[in-house]
Design brief:
The chain is built from 30 helices and 17 strands.
C-alpha cells in the first residue's frame, strides 16, 4: 500500500448535507442535486463519475430527501460495488444497498423463493465448465480446454441475451457472431447443459437473473413488495448492461422513473458477454424528461495522455463514436507518451522492465505501475523480464484480498487479541497500534523483512504486510485508535471489499484493467493481429478493439508508454506492423486515409541494441527445434528435452541465492530466477563472457553477482564482501 494521507484514506464524515457537496465541480454538483426523475450522466474516463453518484446518494440521504434503505445502486463488479459502499460509508450514508446485478438478484431470489416456488432455492453452480464438458461428452462432441472455455462463454452470452438453445444458430447467423464451434453443435451442448442442470437441481449465475425476472413478471405481489422497498435506483457503467439486466431493471422500476444511469459509450468493451451501449444511447428516447449531465473534466490524466485518448476516439466510427466525449485535462502538463519499437517480444519485455526499474528508482512506487496487454498469454515473458530485473510484480485476477486464508486467519488473531486487551502476553512489549498488530501477525508468519522465496510464501507475507501498513496509516489518521477500532475498520472494509493494496507492478489484461488507474502505464504488444485482435473482423468488432485501447490509455495518470515488436522471437522475420489505431498519432505515421507518412521517425524510439544486433532464431541445443517460449529460450532447450544440469551445482546456487536475497532484502527471484539458475547449472560457465551469454544474466547482474556465481561454478562457496551497489536497492 502506498502511503496515504488522512484525507484520502480515512476522510472525515461531512458534518452536514451541504458539506457533502463541497469540492464538487459544477457538473458533478448538478448530478448530486438532481434527485428526482430520470437522470443520465455521460461520464468520460477520469471525470469523477463514482464521486458524483456517491455524493448524489449521500446528499439525498443526509438532506432527508431519500431514505437510505430505499436506494439500490447496482454496478458490474464486486470491487466496484465495494468501493461504492466504502465511499457512501465515508460520506455518512450507511445503509444504502450497493451491489452487483447478480448479488442483488440472488438476495431477492433467496428471500422470495419459498413464497414463489416453495422449498429451498436450488444449489448455485460456482463453476459451469465441468458441467459443460459433461454435456459435450454426452453429445459426442470433443472439446479441448480452450474450446471448452469458449463454448462455456458462448452459453453465458446466449443466456444473457435471452436466447434459448433452439434459437441459438439463427441468432448467431443474424448477428454475424463468430461462434467458436459449429452453431448447431453449440446448440446441442447448450440444450444438454440445461437438461443436466434440471436433473441435478442446480442453477448457474445467469439463472439467478432469469429466475428473478420470471418471479417478478409472474408474481405481481412480489414485484410490488420489491418496488415498495426500493424507490430510487442508480446504475453505474450503464453502457455494459445486457438485455437481461435491462429487463430486470425495468421490473424493479415498474412505472416509476427515479433512475440515475451513468456511463460512457466509448468504454463499451464487453459486447462478447452480451453488453450493449444501446440502452445508454437510447435513454433520452425512452425518458424524454431526463436530466442529462456530461462530465468531461478529466482529473486523472495529464493533457498529453488526454490528447492521445481524444485522438484515438477522433478516428472512431459508428454510433458510439457519434456520442464520444471530448475530455479536458485538469492536471499540469506531463511527459509526452513514449513510443518504442523493438526487434522481438523478449526485447520488448526486457526494455519495458528496464524502464520500470528506472521509474521505481526515480521514486514511482511499484504499486503505481502497470503493464497492460491484450491477452493473458502475453504475461509470461513480462513476468520473466520483471523478475530478472529485480522488480516485484502481481498478476491481476487473483483471489479477493479479504477471502485469502492468511487474511482470514489474521482477522481471527487480531479479534482475539482485541478481546483479550491487556491480558494478552503478546502485547506486553508493544507500544502503539502498529506495534500491537506486528506482534499479533508475527504469529502468522509476518516478519520485518520479506521472505527470500517467491510464490505462495511471498504472497502470504505481502498480504500480512498490507495489514501492517494499513494499521500504520490508521493510527496516523486516528491518533489513539485501539486494536478494537482497527478490527472494526477491517470488518467494515471486508463487508465493502475495500482492500488495502499489495505492492508490486501490476500485470493485467486490458479488459481486467477497466475501472483502475496508475501513475505509469505500459501498453505492450500493440501490433496488428493483437490490437486489433486477429479475430475482430466486422467494423463493429474493430471499433470495440479501438475502445479497448482507449480504456488502456486512459488508465495512465502521468507516464504512458506504448510499444510493439517486429518479430515474436529473436531472429524471427520482422514482419509485424504497429497497430493501425496508432496511425496519425505516433510520430512518423500517416493518418488513416492519408498518403504518405506524417514525417520522419520522429519520437519513436528504436533501441540501439535492437537495430545493431540481429540475432539468429533460438534453437533447442538438444533437438534443434526453434524455441519461442521465454523459459525454454533461457535454457536453450525444450522443456521436455533431457537436461544435463549439474544437480549439486544447482542446489549450491539456490542456497547462495537464498542468503544473497536475504542480505539485500529482496525476493529470491530478484537475484536470479529458477530458470536462470538451471541454465547456469547446465552451462557451468568458466568466464564472465560465458556467464554473460546466458539469458537472464544482464550487465547489471553480471557486475553485481557474477564473481560469486563463477566462484560457485568453480567449486567455491561464493562468499564475497557486500557490494556498495547493494545499498541502493
Amino acid at each position: 500500500m502506498t502511503s496515504a494521507t488522512h484525507s484520502t484514506l480515512f476522510p472525515q464524515v461531512p458534518d452536514s448535507a451541504d458539506a457533502v457537496l463541497d469540492g464538487l465541480d459544477p457538473e458533478q454538483r448538478e448530478v448530486a442535486m438532481a434527485l428526482q426523475g430520470p437522470v443520465c450522466v455521460l461520464a468520460g474516463a477520469g471525470t469523477g463519475k463514482t464521486r458524483a453518484i456517491t455524493h448524489r446518494i449521500a446528499y439525498g440521504v443526509r438532506a432527508g430527501i431519500i431514505q437510505p434503505t430505499s436506494v439500490l445502486a447496482v454496478t458490474f463488479t464486486n470491487r466496484a460495488a465495494g468501493e461504492m459502499r466504502g465511499r457512501l460509508r465515508q460520506l455518512g450514508a450507511g445503509g444504502v444497498q450497493a451491489r452487483t446485478f447478480h448479488s442483488a438478484a440472488l438476495r431477492q431470489l433467496q428471500y422470495f423463493w419459498p413464497k414463489a416456488v416453495g422449498g429451498d432455492l436450488p444449489r448455485l453452480l460456482e463453476r459451469k465448465v465441468q458441467l459443460v464438458a459433461e454435456a459435450a461428452a454426452r453429445c459426442g462432441i470433443r472439446l479441448d480446454r480452450n474450446e471448452l472455455r469458449d463454448v462455456t462463454s458462448e452459453i453465458e452470452w446466449a443466456k444473457v441475451t435471452q436466447t434459448v438453445p433452439a434459437d441459438y444458430p439463427a441468432v448467431v447467423a443474424k448477428s454475424q457472431r463468430d461462434a467458436p464451434r459449429d452453431p448447431a453443435e453449440i446448440s446441442q451442448v447448450y440444450a444438454m447443459y440445461e437438461q443436466l442442470k434440471r436433473d441435478r437441481t442446480v442453477i448457474d449465475f445467469e439463472d439467478v437473473l432469469l429466475l428473478t425476472v420470471g418471479i417478478l413478471q409472474d408474481r405481481h405481489d412480489i414485484a410490488d413488495h420489491v418496488r415498495r422497498q426500493y424507490q430510487h435506483f442508480v446504475v453505474d457503467e450503464y453502457q455494459d448492461v445486457s438485455p437481461l439486466q435491462q429487463r430486470l431493471l425495468d421490473l424493479w422500476l415498474g412505472d416509476r422513473d427515479n433512475l440515475c444511469v451513468v456511463g460512457d459509450a466509448s468504454q463499451t468493451i464487453y459486447s462478447f458477454t452480451g453488453a450493449t451501449p444501446d440502452h445508454l444511447l437510447n435513454f433520452r428516447t425512452r425518458h424524454p424528461r431526463a436530466t442529462v449531465v456530461k462530465l468531461v473534466r478529466d482529473y486523472r490524466s495529464t493533457p498529453q495522455v488526454v490528447h492521445l485518448a481524444n485522438g484515438l476516439l477522433g478516428q472512431a466510427r459508428g454510433r458510439a463514436a457519434e456520442h464520444r466525449l471530448e475530455l479536458v485535462s485538469q492536471r499540469e502538463r506531463g511527459p509526452e507518451p513514449a513510443y518504442t519499437e523493438y526487434a522481438d517480444e523478449p526485447a520488448e519485455a526486457e526494455g519495458t522492465a528496464r524502464r520500470i526499474r528506472d521509474l521505481i528508482a526515480a521514486g514511482v512506487p511499484a504499486g503505481e505501475i502497470a503493464v497492460l496487454y491484450r491477452v493473458n498469454s502475453q504475461s509470461e515473458v513480462y513476468e520473466q523480464a520483471l523478475a530478472d530485473a529485480g522488480v516485484p510484480y502481481q498478476l491481476r485476477g487473483a483471489e479477493r484480498f479479504f477471502e485469502r486464508a492468511e487474511v482470514r486467519e489474521a482477522g481471527v488473531a487480531l479479534r482475539g487479541a482485541a478481546r483479550a486487551g491487556g491480558n494478552d502476553s503478546l502485547l506486553d512489549d508493544a507500544q502503539g497500534l502498529p506495534a500491537e498488530v506486528r506482534a499479533v501477525l508475527s504469529t502468522k508468519g509476518w516478519r520485518s523483512e520479506p521472505p527470500t522465496g517467491s510464490g505462495a510464501v511471498r504472497d502470504r507475507w505481502e498480504s500480512l504486510a498490507a495489514l501492517v501498513r494499513l494499521a500504520e496509516d490508521f493510527e496516523q489518521a486516528r491518533p489513539g485508535a485501539t486494536l478494537s477500532d482497527l478490527v472494526a475498520e477491517l470488518d467494515e472494509r471486508a463487508a465493502a471489499q475495500h482492500a488495502p493494496t499489495v505492492q508490486g507492478v501490476t500485470l493485467a489484461s486490458l479488459h481486467s484493467a477497466k475501472g483502475l488507474e496508475w501513475d505509469a502505464v505500459f501498453l505492450v504488444g500493440l501490433t496488428e493481429g493483437m490490437m486489433p485482435i486477429t479475430y475482430a473482423k466486422t467494423d463493429e468488432q474493430i471499433e470495440e478493439e479501438r475502445r479497448l485501447l482507449y480504456v488502456g490509455v486512459t488508465r495512465a495518470r502521468f507516464h504512458l508508454s506504448l510499444s510493439w515488436s517486429l518479430a515474436r522471437s529473436p531472429g524471427g522475420r520482422a514482419g509485424r506492423r504497429p497497430s493501425r489505431f496508432l496511425n496519425g498519432l505516433r510520430p512518423g505515421s500517416a493518418a488513416p486515409g492519408s498518403r504518405g507518412a506524417a514525417g520522419g521517425s520522429g519520437g519513436i524510439e528504436r533501441p540501439v541494441a535492437a537495430r545493431r544486433k540481429r540475432r539468429g532464431p533460438a534453437l533447442c541445443r538438444v533437438c534443434g527445434r526453434t524455441l519461442t517460449d521465454a523459459g525454454e529460450m533461457k535454457l536453450m532447450r525444450c522443456d521436455d528435452c533431457p537436461s544435463d544440469m549439474d544437480e549439486a551445482l544447482y542446489e549450491r546456487l539456490r542456497d547462495w541465492r537464498a542468503v544473497r536475497a536475504q542480505e539485500i532484502s529482496q525476493p529470491a527471484y530478484c537475484v536470479f530466477t529458477d530458470k536462470t539458475l538451471m541454465a547456469i547449472a547446465e552451462a557451468v560457465p568458466g568466464s564472465e563472457g560465458e556467464l554473460a551469454g546466458i539469458p537472464g544474466v544482464g550487465a547489471r547482474k553480471l557486475g553485481r553477482f557474477g564473481a560469486a556465481v563463477l566462484d560457485i561454478c568453480a567449486g567455491g562457496d561464493g562468499v564475497e564482501e557486500p557490494a556498495e551497489a547493494d545499498e541502493e536497492m
